């Protein structure tokens, strides 16, 4: 069996067109409708700069005004909190995100919690995350990677209810909320993490209808122990040595793509799978926030 490749790049492009058209229409109906996102980047980590550039480009393509505020690496927590507070109080700003990771002197939890819930389009604040974990509750904004994965599964008509799903990784912003959201949709979910044994990993993955891997380890999932016909969602972004590349390395996910391709039913590639979906969900959340502010 050869798996269908889930083309996150194409699916996100389709969605971006819809977002752009909706924004154009709303702007034509209301000249004051001007969705705006502010990204705060602390310091100049090259990986963060790349992600910020991608977000700026995606926003400009759909008509979202996006400003990146680069603040010094050594900014104090008080100064950063004051900046966030000013943006919380700026009615022209509909969404705000602080690019992670932060330098160690800044408390990530305090910083992400200081973003007003109605502007927390990353969905990282306690208020938004807590409602993911409550029965019959739903956050104002879902974190963008879990939201993008749910969108991909629905787009590909991969059923969730009654399924065995394994989520590898238990981060606050991907693994844990995604596992809970899948469970809320009726799946039986197992979370594998750094303390899971190799036997547990093999046992649960070989019985899983859907496997989502978000551990940040190349070749974490290999074709020999996935279930035939299963859906494999790769959230990993890793770099491995590759002498054929000018940079000497290539990007890959957590999944050994070639071996899983032969056995899975559907699979996301890296790049071009989950990554573009995360970016497009930021646009969805900013548009949502701008629409609520205009109501
Ligand atoms: N760093 C890596 N991914 C993300 C993300 O989705 N949001 C923010 N704020 N920082 C990140």
From TrEMBL:
<comment type="similarity">
    <text>In the N-terminal section; belongs to the tetrahydrofolate dehydrogenase/cyclohydrolase family.</text>
</comment>
<comment type="similarity">
    <text>In the C-terminal section; belongs to the formate--tetrahydrofolate ligase family.</text>
</comment>
<comment type="subunit">
    <text>Homodimer.</text>
</comment>
<feature type="domain" description="Tetrahydrofolate dehydrogenase/cyclohydrolase catalytic">
    <location>
        <begin position="6"/>
        <end position="122"/>
    </location>
</feature>
<feature type="domain" description="Tetrahydrofolate dehydrogenase/cyclohydrolase NAD(P)-binding">
    <location>
        <begin position="143"/>
        <end position="293"/>
    </location>
</feature>
<protein>
    <recommendedName>
        <fullName>C-1-tetrahydrofolate synthase, cytoplasmic</fullName>
    </recommendedName>
</protein>
